[in-house]
Model the fold of this input.
Amino acid sequence: MIIDTHVHIGGEAVGFHMTEQMVLESMEKYHIDYALVSNGDAGEMTHKQELLPEEMQITQEKALKRVLAFARQHPEKIGATVWVKPYLQGLTKELENMMQENLDIIYAVKLHPFHSDTSPTDEKVLPYLSLAEKYHLAVVSHTGGCEAADPVHLYEAAKLFPKVPFVMVHMGLGTNNREALDLLGKADNLYGDTTWVPMSTTIEAIKRYGSKKILFGSDSPIDGVDTYFCNPKGERSLYQDYFHVLPEKISEDAYEDLMYRNAMEVFGISL
Done:
């Protein structure tokens, strides 16, 4: 079994094209059993960390509505993750009501400190973390690319909310992952994921902390339907290592923890 904890739809405003059909086609093609999906349409800033024009902004509530519809249509395959907009909106009663009414298919709050230029410990973000605690949800957060997205800030948030599981997506994108690896051992409720993380980093995490601290995630279908196989240039994806090389390098139990059991425990997924 494979649970991908980091899958997207939307994102056109920042140059991505990820649709529900692409997600389903990719899952079928590469034997992904279940995916947690967030909507990149809730991104607030460009890759240069400049605010998107007002006409390109989509509210967090509208973005969530699309994800919920997807999950409702395919409950056996899709779970929802709530991408929030702390910079422009902040927590609203409307968003909380939507979440409360759909807790059966919502598994996490999604932060993107890079595309919101807002740290996980910023006062604008803390109400979302309190909400995650209230409804027993995990918090998943992009890490890497700017100061606000430094992994240490997610660690600090995890210390503030010890009952909430926090997942360091990317484990410091664009870095050697050393900071994120060290932080994994400093908070019981802090986890990593494999999104664009070399297999060697994951092996080291398992050697240092055991097999319960890291989860499989991919960013699919950010590079298209074949994100798990190759990039748009045809260059081999590192996820091929996770599918075909890693099972020979770690125990069967550790591999099953990584690929689905940890996700079921951290997010409370029942399949």
